[in-house]
TrEMBL record:
Binding, NADP(+): E80, G128, S129, G130, G131, A132, L213, G236
Segments crossing the lipid bilayer: none
Residues the record lists as binding shikimate: S18, Y19, S20, T64, N89, D104, Y215, Q243
GO function term, MF aspect, one: NADP binding
Domain Shikimate dehydrogenase substrate binding N-terminal: 10-91
Gene, per the UniProt record: aroE
Keyword NADP on entry: yes
Catalytic residues of the enzyme: K68
Family to which this protein belongs: Belongs to the shikimate dehydrogenase family.
Record EC number: 1.1.1.25
Protein name as it appears in the record: Shikimate dehydrogenase (NADP(+))
Keyword vocabulary terms for this entry: Amino-acid biosynthesis, Aromatic amino acid biosynthesis, NADP, Oxidoreductase
Length: 272
């Protein structure tokens, strides 16, 4: 059982694009833990069954699209930041309990810090209404963003889930002015659909920084368009590594320094 407990993994619907095994195996090597990180693709409708199977076989799990919200109801406990967000991306199997956390929340803040993106009293527009956007919005709010607007294809449906946040649809986006940051939390532009962008240059020109949580490809069409018109463009790779380090800290009850995030980020940056 001890050997089995050193297995960690990721559950999601489609995982062929994932860098997570490379990232976590690099982290484990650096923190001297003999373990491995594997992918578990789960068909819709089989999440409960798979979680119940894996809880006796792994030490911890990450959760990705489309299960970050759905999985919450299967857990015994949820951390404070995850309760606020309403979505989790990390499960710790602890004392026969399943405890959920949201390390995207911490990873996003780490990314802002490393790229010197000062959000205090600024304005941000967030594209998408899934679990990732929830983590991003709460991280922004907890770090003194001035104003946040959420953009969704169905603003009426999402208003209940984002209480206190102004929600608009994509047709209204062209009317927004005086916002600094535009943040893509949708999967639009992710490999293999690399010829798609959630917005075009006519929208991007109203901002100074474009952030895309997507990391594969490293430069999405969204970010390419942003750079072409002079915006600072940041992808989600550093956030991915930072949230992975936070997950490993939770699973292994250790503290990992920022230098490990930087080292693993550089490994991926060179490889991809």
């Amino acid at each position: 059982m001890d050997d089995l407990k050193k297995v960690y993994g990721l559950i999601g619907e489609k995982l062929s694009h994932s860098y997570s095994p490379i990232i976590h195996n690099e982290i484990l090597k650096r923190i001297n833990i003999d373990g491995e990180y594997v992918l578990f693709e789960v068909e819709r409708g089989r999440l409960r069954e798979k979680i119940n199977e894996l809880k006796y076989k792994v030490k911890g799990l990450n959760v990705t699209i489309p299960y970050k919200v759905e999985v919450v109801e299967l857990l015994d406990e949820v951390s404070e930041e995850a309760k606020k967000i309403g979505a989790i991306n990390t499960i710790d199997f602890k004392d026969n309990l399943m405890v959920g956390y949201n390390t995207d929340y911490y990873g996003f803040k780490a990314m802002l810090d490393v790229y010197n993106i000062d959000i205090k009293n600024k304005g941000a527009v967030v594209l998408g209404s899934g679990g990732a956007s929830k983590a991003v919005i709460h991280s922004l709010l907890d770090n003194e963003i001035g104003e946040v607007v959420l953009v969704s294809r169905d603003k009426i449906r999402v208003e209940d889930r984002f209480k206190g946040i102004k929600c608009i649809d994509y047709s209204e986006l062209k009317h927004l002015r005086n916002f600094d940051y535009i943040i893509n939390c949708t999967p639009v532009g992710m490999y293999p659909n690399i010829d798609s962008s959630p917005v075009d240059k006519d929208i991007l020109q109203n901002y100074s920084v474009a952030i895309d949580l997507i990391y594969n490809p490293t430069k999405t069409l969204f970010l390419k368009k942003a750079e072409e018109i002079g915006l600072k463009a940041v992808n989600g790779l550093y956030m991915l590594v930072a949230q992975a380090v936070k997950s490993e800290e939770i699973w292994n009850r250790v503290s990992v320094g920022d230098e490990v995030i930087r080292e693993v980020f550089e490994v991926l940056h060179k490889e991809f």
